[in-house]
Amino acid sequence: MYSNRRMAKRGLSRPVSFRLTAWYCGLFSLSLAVLFVFIYWTLDAALRKANAELLHSKVKEFADTYKDMGIQEIRRDASQKRSDEFLIRVADAQNRTLFASLPYSDPAGPAALQAVEAREILPTERLFAVNLGKRGTFEFANTRLKDGSMVQIGRNAVKRRVLLEHFVESCAAVTIPVLLLALGGGALMADRALRPLLNLTATVQNIVATGKLDARISQEKTAGELRELVVSFDQMLEKIEALVEGMRGVLDNVAHDLRTPITRLRGVAELALRHPQDAPGAQEALADCVEESERVITMLNTLMDISEVETGAMKLKLRRVDVSELARQLTEFYAEVAEDRGLKITLSAETRCEAVADENRLRQAVANLLDNAVKYTPEGGEVAVAVKRTGGQVVVSVRDTGMGIPAEDLPRVWERLYRGDKSRSQRGLGLGLSLVRAIAQAHLGDCRVQSEPGRGSEFTLRIPAQMAV
C-alpha cells in the first residue's frame, strides 16, 4: 500500500500539484500587480488633484489681491509668504513677467521661470506643466484678469514623484516575501486538494495489484465535491464487490446444480452403452437423458431471462390481461397436483381485475409462486390465491401453510440459485423466485414476502394496472 501511494505521488502529485501551485501563484501575482497598479494610479490621481486644488486656491488668492490692490500689494504679500515650494509670477497680456517670486530652496526655480516665459500661454489654459527633465516638473495654475494680465502659481512635483517612488520600492520589498508565502500556500492547498485523489489512485493501484476489492478510501479531512467523489467511489467498490461475490456465488451454484443432471446424463448413457442389445432400456435411457437435458435448458433459459431483465433487454408483449381469469386457470391446473398431495387450494379474485402486461410472463410468475406453495406445503395444508386491485395496482398473493422461511433467509429468497437449508430436500433449480422478481421489475412492479417458520408464507406480486403499451 505504501509503495502504491509513492507511485501515485510520482504519477499524479508532482505535475498536477506543480501546475496548481503555479496557477495559484500566477493568479495571486497578477492580482497583487493589479492591486499595486490600482493603488499607484489612485494615489497619483489623488495627489495631482490635491496639488491642483491647492494651486488654484493660491492663484485665486493672488489674483484677487492683484485685482483689488495692484502689483505692489502682490510684491509685499509674496515677500511675506515666500516659501520653498511655490513660484509666483505676474505677467502682462504679452506674457512678459511683471513680477516673479522664486522658491528659495528649489534650485530649479529659475529654469522653471525661464520655461514659463518662453512658453505660449493659451487664454483658456488654467493648469499646465513644465518639464525640466531630471530637475523635476513644475505644475502651474494660471488665471487671466480682465486687463489680459496673468497670475501664475507653480510648484515642483518632485515630492510627489519621490513619494510614488517610495511606494513602488515598498511594494517591491513586500512582493518577494508575499510571493514566497503564496508559493508555500499554493503548495499546501494543492497537496490538500490532491490528497483524496492520491488516496483514490493508491486504492485503485492496490486493487489492480492484489485483486482485492475490500480496499476503501479514507474520508477523513475530505469535504465538498471531493468527499462526494470519495464516497461515490467507495460505494462503487462496495457494489462491484457485491456483484463479484454474487457472480462467484452464482457460478458456484450453477456448477453445483449442473453437476447433478450432467452426471446423471453420463451415468444413464454409460449404462445404455453397456447393454447395447437392450432396446427398452435404451429407450428409457434416452427418455432420462431428454428429461435431464430439459432441466439444464430450463435452468439456462431462466438465467438468461433474469439477466435480460437486469440489463433492460427483456421485451414484453403488452396487452390487456384479465389477471383474475389467469389466476383461475392456473389454480385449476394445480388443483389436481394439490389434490394428489392432500392439499386444499382456493381462489379469491375480483371480477375482471385487468392489467396491461405480458400474459405469458405474468402466467410464468404466478405459476412459479403456485408451484412453490404446493411444493413446500405438507399434506393437509392449504394454499390460498387472491387477486385484487389496490391503488392503481393489481395484486396477486399466494399464501400457504407450509414450513415457512427463517428470518435470516427472507432477504435472500429472491437471489438466483439461492435455496435455504429446508428447501434443499425438494428438487428444484432455485431460480423460480428470482424469475418472479425479474418479471415484476420488467413490469415496473415489485414482489414481497411475509413468512413465519412453521406457520407458512405469503408471496405478493404487484404490477401497475395501466403500464404504458
Chain-wise SSE layout:
Elements: H1 2-69, H2 71-80, E1 86-91, E2 97-101, H3 109-118, E3 127-131, E4 137-144, E5 150-156, H4 158-210, H5 224-274, H6 279-310, E6 318-322, H7 323-340, E7 344-349, E8 354-358, H8 359-375, E9 382-390, E10 393-400, H9 432-442, E11 446-452, E12 456-464
Parallel strand pairs: 7-9
Antiparallel strand pairs: 1-2, 1-5, 3-4, 4-5, 6-8, 9-10, 10-12, 11-12
Helix pairs in contact: 1-2, 1-4, 4-5, 5-6, 6-9, 7-8, 8-9
Q: What does it look like?
A:
The protein is α+β, with helices and mostly antiparallel strands and 469 residues long. Helices cover 58% and strands 17% of the residues. The chain is built from nine helices and twelve strands. It has helices spanning 2-69, 71-80, 109-118, 158-210, 224-274, 279-310, 323-340, 359-375, 432-442; strands at residues 86-91, 97-101, 127-131, 137-144, 150-156, 318-322, 344-349, 354-358, 382-390, 393-400, 446-452, 456-464. The strands form three sheets. A five-stranded antiparallel β-sheet has the order 2-1-5-4-3. β9 (382-390) and β10 (393-400) form a beta hairpin. The longest helix is centred in the first third of the chain and has 68 residues, at 2-69. The chain starts with a helix and ends in a 5-residue tail after the last strand.
Indicate the low-confidence ranges by residue numbers: 1-13, 421-428
**Rg (C-alpha, Å):** 50 Å
Distance between the termini: 54 Å
- Structural class by helix and strand composition: alpha+beta
User: Taking strands numbered 1, 2, ... along the chain, how are they ordered across the largest sheet?
Assistant: 2-1-5-4-3
Average pLDDT score: 79
Strand content: 15-25%
Number of helices: 9
Strand element count:
12
The H/E string reads HHEEHEEEHHHEHEEHEEHEE
CA-based shape: rod-shaped
